[in-house]
Amino acid sequence: MTDQNDLFGAPPEKRPRGVQPAPPLAEDLALATRLSPHIHLGTSTWSYPGWQGLVWAGKHSEATLSKTGLPAYAAHPLLRAVGIDRGFYRPLAASEFQRHAEQVPRGFRFTVKAPSLVTDALLRSEGGRGQQPNPLFLDPMAALQDFIAPAYEGLGQSIGALVLQISPLPGPRLARMNEQFDLLHALLLALPKPPAGVLAVEVRDVAWLTPDLVALLRDTGARYCLGLHPKLPPLSEQLPLLRALWPGPLVARWNLNRLHGAFGYEAAEKKYGEFSEMLDPDPETRAELARVIRGTAGEGQDVFVTISNKAEGSAPLSVRALAQAVVQG
Q: Is the pTM here over 0.85, yes or no?
């Protein structure tokens, strides 16, 4: 009897459905084997269509990638972490965190920003203009209810760093920094330790970068999040603070290339387009960060680093270049 496949040909192969990872490069696979398991590098989020060929095998909308792209992202050999920044704009439920955690392999870690409800001293309009004082600024109960408890429950062992990024303070608060240190100290003392990873503090005002910050972080066991942003001094000038807190894990967020200035997010976004090319490489920052990563991981401490597209033009390419700098050093 004649096989139907002989008459009509073999049935066509089914194309995989959904977001598929780009085929890994041999150099990335080799590089990943040389990175310490303590080192978790990633991007600030994962929903960029312009990463086709770098992270995604096909073309997808931002909405599709946001909802279903995380497993493909986590399949990239160098992407061992990712940021969840959208929680800054509205608190996320434990179920949302859990859904993310269920989509990644063991050992993958999340860096999560706390809601602005807790970390911004001002209530702002949709355009970002401060309108009135925020009564819940650095409030322990609000932080526990809207950030800490849901993240601990939903992410569990997938926590890398939970970051309290304190927005720029209004003038009256800057004039009373002792009060701000007391508020932050009381908040951190009230929060339970995470089941994995660390609690970290990132700031946007130089006025925070004093021995008082070192003292309260030491007292509470929280970490300083190295903020690579033009509103703060260069990495080299923040290193004394890291040294004062040694030993401990490293948390770093490379947010924006210094050439764009303190308010240059929109300019960077326009210039970098689809975020598929490294248009403004910053080898000096990368080399210095790689040195800190090597030293930290070499002493058996965990490293959690996330990079924005606005750092050099394409976050996945920045991760690759940073990984190369780490192992070549």
A: yes
